[in-house]
Amino acid sequence: MAGGTLIVGASQAGLQLAASLGQFGDTKPIALVGEEIHPPYQRPPLSKEFLTRASDLESLALRAPSYYADAGIDLVSGERVTEVALSSSGSPGSGVARTASGRSFAFDRLALTVGAAPRRLDVPGAGLDGICCLRDRDDAADLRGRLESGARVVVVGGGFIGLEAAAVARALGKEVTVVEAADRLISRAVAPVVSEFYRQAHVRRGTRVLLSAAVSGFEGADGRVTAVRLADGTVLPADLVVVGVGVLPRTELAEQLGLACDRGIVVDAHARTSNPRVHAAGDCTVQPHPVTGLGTVRLESVQNAVAQATAAAASLLGRPVGATPVPWFWSYQGDLRLQIAGLSTGYDEYVVRGEPDSERFSVLYYRQRELLAIDAVNSPADYMAVRRALTDGATVPPSAAGDPGTPLKTLLAAGRAAVSSS
Ligand SMILES: Cc1cc2nc3c(=O)[nH]c(=O)nc-3n(C[C@H](O)[C@H](O)[C@H](O)COP(=O)(O)OP(=O)(O)OC[C@H]3O[C@@H](n4cnc5c(N)ncnc54)[C@H](O)[C@@H]3O)c2cc1C
Question: N or C: which end of the chain has fewer CB within 10 A?
Fold first, then answer.
């Protein structure tokens, strides 16, 4: 490529950025360079439908193969960008990138959509065969094959991906143990009441859940894992181990460019890095809190990747960037469908609607009585009502939210009326 836009990282955010440039009328060449050999695909099904065999590899693709040429996007797969430099002369933002295989890409504009890599456990035996992670298509295909035989599965990490994988393994009839270092499940994202609900729900389905349990190492025979050792001396026999202990944003190229990084590539609400000529979007970034503007957050979601990449495209072209949308997320653990709207970070109060034991309830989060977010378990109407309210700047008084007999959308309408009359 000799000029145009270089997007490093060909996945949810990178593809969206390329597509949005075209939709905004950009006619310059676009190179979308990705390390993986597969064209951009969806990751969420990897721990859900794909793992259960309800979907296949072909259905994961984000676009039909013909899309890229039709949209004028030069998709370069299987190339890892290892070096990138901005020129000190020439147009602002121009430079050159090189890949591990020696290809070079000159650009006028640069965007980093490099995502995140799974965090590995640094304990003895971590390299044994049968210890798997779940980040990309190849990981998922490998895990899916291994689930056909192993009877005892230990999942290390009680976050979303670990619990989704545990639900699949248990539904396949495996003996499943989840090992979580914190004292509750999904502790970074949900309130204790939701954590406890998930613990009980997984236990009801036959999964063993160990909290405050640290892995100290793995045991093996003939190079294959046979057990997980915990710090308290417990030994859990295992034929297969799934490690889901979070991700590390890929900041190596940003660091080469001298961009500010702090648990991710620091960007503003327009997806501009500390060098405003370079943009970044998706899992690799940290951004101002999209709801309150207070502090920074790193969001790992499809919604964020798409929204931020769209903002980056507008910003790269000097177009106005729309208001930051309300974040939303989902996690399907077997028949437990969690939908989240907003961000509960910083909440000082929450209200539970419905009865967690019925496996159908929601939790509304507030800060200083301002509605922040909802976690809705098998309650899509509550989720939709709060998502719309957050988008419209409406609220519902915490005192009324707990009444499951009154549909939330009725309460939210009342909240909206109160807001507009005040
Ligand atoms: C198993 C799983 C389940 C998930 N489930 C959900 C869900 O239910 N709901 C939800 O909202 N989100 C879910 N997510 C999260 C969601 O998939 C991510 O937030 C989204 O994929 C982020 O997109 P991204 O483009 O920012 O990063 P990524 O998808 O990580 O893509 C980054 C790409 O950049 C490439 N790359 C990195 N460095 C280089 C380089 N130097 N040169 C070239 N290429 C490079 C990588 O190989 C990768 O392909 C899930 C993720 C996983 C892994």
Answer: C
Q: 63-84: per-residue pLDDT in tens?
A: 999 999 999 999 999 999 999 9
Whether residue 213 is found in the same domain as residue 258: no
Q: Using an 8 Å Cβ cutoff, are 31 and 4 in contact?
A: yes
What's the pTM value of the predicted model, to 2 decimals? 0.95
DSSP 8-state assignment for residue 101: T
Low-confidence ranges of the chain (pLDDT < 50): 417-422
Residue 52 placed within a domain: no
Output the pLDDT for position 306. 98
76 within ligand 1 shell (Cβ under 6 A):
no
Q: Which tens digits make up the pLDDT trace of 209-236?
A: 999 999 999 999 999 999 999 999 999 9
Q: Which numbered atom of ligand 1 lies nearest the CA of 136?
A: 53
Q: Atom 6 (ligand 1): residue with closest C-alpha? A: 44
Nearest CA to ligand 1 atom 7: 44
Distant-in-sequence, close-in-space partners of 358: CB < 8 Å, separation ≥ 6:
none
Last residue of a domain, one of 199, 216, 245: 245
Q: What is the pLDDT of residues 76-116, one digit of tens each?
A: 999 999 999 999 876 777 999 999 999 999 999 999 999 99
Phi then psi dihedrals of residue 385, to 5 deg: -65, -45
Distance 14 CA to ligand 1 centre (A): 10
Q: How many domains does the chain have?
A: 3
- Give the domain range for residue 392: 335-421
Residue 310 lies in a domain: yes
Q: What is the CATH number of the domain that holds 280?
A: 3.50.50.60
- Give a yes or no: residue 53 inside a domain: no
8 lines ligand 1 (CB under 6 A): yes
CA distance 414 to 406: 12
- Dihedral (Cα; 260, 262, 268, 271), 10-degree rounding: 80
Does residue 79 share a domain with residue 40? yes
Residue 81 Cβ inside 6 Å of ligand 1? The answer reads yes
Q: Which of 237, 269, 271, 266 is nearest to 249 (CA)?
A: 266
